[in-house]
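ok, trying the design again with the full structure, not the truncated one.
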């Protein structure tokens, strides 16, 4: 099974080094020197990692056969893909690979069916579960412990504890007293100006 583990960013320096947007929780395993990665587009690879280092909080890699800035820049936006055994699981029991989550049934803590996970959206600050509801609409569920307290791979389900408004906008609560104060202030201004 293939997993996207990174995306090549800008060239760094003149010796073929590139910055990499890491898309794996195990970069020390998947993006280590010697690792051979498939690519998307396939014509760019396979790529073998020659060296890796962290610079200013970003992972910098150099690939075998990529010796200058022009060759490195030609790899920009290339996806790096690792071959992973489908039975393999992350070391941390609180982590999951995307393929383990896709197609799980989603239910609330009180047992209401919500839908099925169709995709995992990886954003810079958190991941989102894309859940397709029975009516075909989608709901985005932040993949954080407070909202997704349980993933049960044996039962093939994800249990969520959605905050008000996540599943039904009619249940949404005003998040700030400031909004209510602004409305009161506008009413007072209207009354005082009359």
């Amino acid at each position: 099974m293939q997993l996207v583990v990174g995306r090549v960013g800008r060239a760094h320096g003149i010796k073929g080094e590139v910055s990499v947007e890491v898309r794996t929780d195990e970069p020390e395993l998947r993006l280590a020197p010697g690792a051979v990665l498939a690519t998307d587009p396939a014509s760019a690879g396979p790529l073998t990692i020659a060296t890796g280092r962290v610079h200013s909080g970003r992972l910098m890699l150099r690939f075998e056969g990529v010796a200058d800035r022009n060759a490195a820049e030609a790899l920009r936006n290339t996806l790096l893909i690792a071959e992973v055994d489908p039975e393999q699981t992350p070391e941390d029991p609180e982590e999951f690979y995307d393929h383990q989550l896709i197609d799980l049934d989603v239910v609330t803590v009180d047992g209401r069916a919500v839908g099925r996970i169709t995709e995992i959206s990886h954003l810079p600050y958190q991941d989102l579960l894309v859940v397709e509801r029975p009516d075909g609409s989608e709901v985005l569920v932040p993949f954080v412990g407070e909202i997704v307290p349980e993933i049960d791979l044996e039962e093939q389900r994800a249990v969520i504890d959605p905050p008000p408004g996540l599943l039904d906008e009619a249940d949404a609560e005003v998040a700030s007293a400031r909004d209510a104060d602004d409305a009161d202030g506008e009413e007072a201004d209207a009354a005082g100006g009359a």
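Keeping the full-length input from now on. The helical segments are 27-30, 69-74, 98-101, 177-192.
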